[in-house]
Design a protein that fits this description.
By secondary structure, the chain is an all-alpha fold. It has one domain. Helix content is about 80%, strand content about 0%. Helix 1 runs antiparallel to helix 4, helix 1 runs antiparallel to helix 5 and helix 2 packs antiparallel against helix 3. It is elongated. The two termini are about 20 Å apart.
């Protein structure tokens, strides 16, 4: 086992499992964001003329989710945990707010419910994610 105890291997595996969980959830959320936007393009009742500033803001918001696909795999525990909490909460609030702008179409509500559930789950998992070093230390005592 290369000098590592069974406990250290289990804790390390749990850390990687959580990273993979975040990675997967961020991909799922991002695909839902993108497909909701694609479907909206086909909705003839939607007419918008957003400013360049609003489009930039929307682009930055979507990029936060895209970036979390990578960051959830490479960041260390503490930064990873807080990034998932903050970006997950930000995306959840943004989707909730988008439902209040106008009367949303049924397909948009469908996607929004999925997106809100996914990002809320990300926040919940990150909030509950124990520090692997603390878990490893407590098992050694």
């Amino acid at each position: 086992m290369g000098g590592r105890t069974v406990t250290e291997i289990k804790v390390g595996k749990g850390f990687e499992d959580m990273r993979m969980r975040f990675f997967t959830l961020w991909i799922f959320a991002t695909l839902n964001y993108v497909y909701a936007d694609v479907v909206t393009l086909f909705d003839k009742s939607v007419t918008t003329s957003l400013s360049q500033t609003a489009l930039l803001g929307a682009s930055i918001l979507v990029e936060t989710a895209i970036a979390m696909v990578l960051l959830s795999r490479v960041l260390k525990y503490r930064t990873n945990r807080w990034a998932n909490i903050i970006i997950g909460a930000l995306n959840t609030v943004a989707i909730l707010a988008s439902l209040l702008v106008a009367t949303p179409a049924l397909y948009y509500i469908f996607f929004a419910v999925i997106e809100i559930a996914t990002t809320s789950l990300i926040v919940w998992y990150a909030w509950k994610w124990p520090n692997p070093q603390a878990v490893s230390m407590s098992r050694h005592n």
